[in-house]
Amino acid sequence: MANITSLAPHNDRILTGVTLMLAFCVLAPLLDVSSKLATATLPVGQIVVARFVFQALLMLPFVLVMRLDWRISRRSLGLVFARALFLMLATYCFVAAVAVMPIADALAIVFVEPFILLVLGSLLFGDEVGPRRIIASTIGFLGAVLVIQPSISAFGWVALFPLGTAFTFAAYMLITRAMSRAIHPVTMQLHTALAGSAICLPLMVAFDGSGIRELDAILPIGIEWLWLFGVGFWSTCSHMCMTYALKFAPSATLAPLHYAELISAVALGYLVFGDFPNLMTWAGISIITGSGLYIIYREHVTARATITPPKQKR
Description:
This protein has 314 residues and is mainly alpha-helical.
């Protein structure tokens, strides 16, 4: 009985982490839905600005209630602005893509990001990458090609925008990794939103009246305000869920669950826009997901081998 009692709190925390991660997978595509609805009448750049501005306004009460330290070092400030810049580029590329593409198709291409992280982690941090993970990454990229190729035929070169999101979001994640020990994740989210607003707002003013459809802001009317608020609201809710999920459960446990976001994206895309992936897209999604899960499995095996000491010979 003593052993069961001692394990219960730990299991409860893991269950909480898993629940929060699944909540992220449900809420994150709502950000994409809000973005796609907004692109019908509003410029892509204005939607990106809304994400940062509303996210900053929504994150501020969390930081105040939690009484977190606002102060960051000069080095961290530079990293915060770099993190915000890459998130801005990732958001712009994805919103520009879903303006014409089904959400699930765009998200499937973005899911090559773990493979990009694997390569960049090896180049920048010296992370060990074995041949099996390299093969899995190559197969994952081939899966992305299955999604991209018919999308280019149907939507033009805008189908490559999700690939831009994958690369810029990988850079965003690497900067997050570098900052994770120096700043609280909730404070990091607020500072990133503030830095993103500081970058985007002057650009929106500069392009006002330029005639460039994607960047020339217009005054939202009626329900358009709801779509813009939804972009900031769902991004805040989903990222808070992920942040706290990682607090309660190890990343190795949560990482495979991230692919459940594709299920939510397909369901919402069909319910809201009537979009449903074709056979080739499903094949690409299956290959990307399978390759990604294999890489996560190999990461888990490698980590366990590193932690577990070798058995002594008798």
